[in-house]
Amino acid sequence: MSESTITVSDEQVAFFHSEGYLVIDAITTPEEVVWMRELYDGLFAERVGYDDGNQFDLAGTDEEGSDARLPQMLAPSFYAPTLRDTIYRANALEVARRLLGPEAEFRFDHAILKPAEAGAETPWHQDEAYWDPAIDYDELSIWMPLQDVGLENGCMHFVPGSHARDVLPHRSIGNDPRIHGLEVDLVVDVSTAVACPIPAGGATVHHCRMVHYTTPNLTSEPRRAYILSFGAPQHPRDRARDFYWLRAQQTARAERAREARERRRAAKAARAQSRDA
Ligand code: NI
After folding, report:
1. Which residue in 75, 156, 263, 269 has a CA-CA distance of 20 to 30 Å to 90?
2. Is the pTM of this model over 0.90?
3. Protein residues near ligand 1, an ion, with CB under 5 A
4. Which residues are paired to 236 by β-bridges?
5. How do strand 21-24 and strand 203-207 relate by DSSP bridges?
6. Rounded to the nearest whole angstrom, what is the distance from the C-alpha of residue 183 to the centroid of ligand 1?
7. Among candidate residues 37, 144, 160, the one with its CA nearest the CA of residue 95
């Protein structure tokens, strides 16, 4: 297993708790970034996970034959297990445990690609708006670009301190329930937002209730981000919330995921039957 090579200062921990985000100059090595970039491009080129509903267009209707404006892949390390043993992952776990406490664990990974010259913006949102409204979360995402990022190709923007709010009302992007991606359905004051341009292999960290945004990619190179999420132990909430925007969604991705579950169930039943025969 890769060992962590990173130290997180008490000042960084305090900054994360008060501001809700953190910028890290280097969370892995240049060599690992180069290796990962090739693997990453292959996963998207081959649309790995598409049939399971795990690769889809975050910002479009994701129908067969249409070009994705913002391709997203869930669980890349499920499909490419070598991603589980990386310096990035070891360092990210160390960062998460410093920020959330020693019980913090890996939750999931995903990748968001902004294609060259056409990569859409990711509108303002809070990650927790995608999750189970009955659970109390203390989680964070570590967002690592595989090339330098700036305003022109989709760097991260945060509203400092916004993680102290509960989840704001959201809706599907453009109020189109066929679209998986969410946006805050409210005029939010982003006048205090900070942009975080960082080098390849650096990272930004944000709390699951941080209001955040990334710019479109207007450059001639794709913008690749690989994201790891970690959480402290989850608890059921005392007071339920209603994330009605999730109930309103009808996405092609969810339909593919449902069909994949059906296929797995049918295959399992067939195996059981052949054993009993
Ligand atoms: Ni997000």
Report:
1. 156
2. yes
3. 127
4. 135
5. antiparallel
6. 10
7. 144
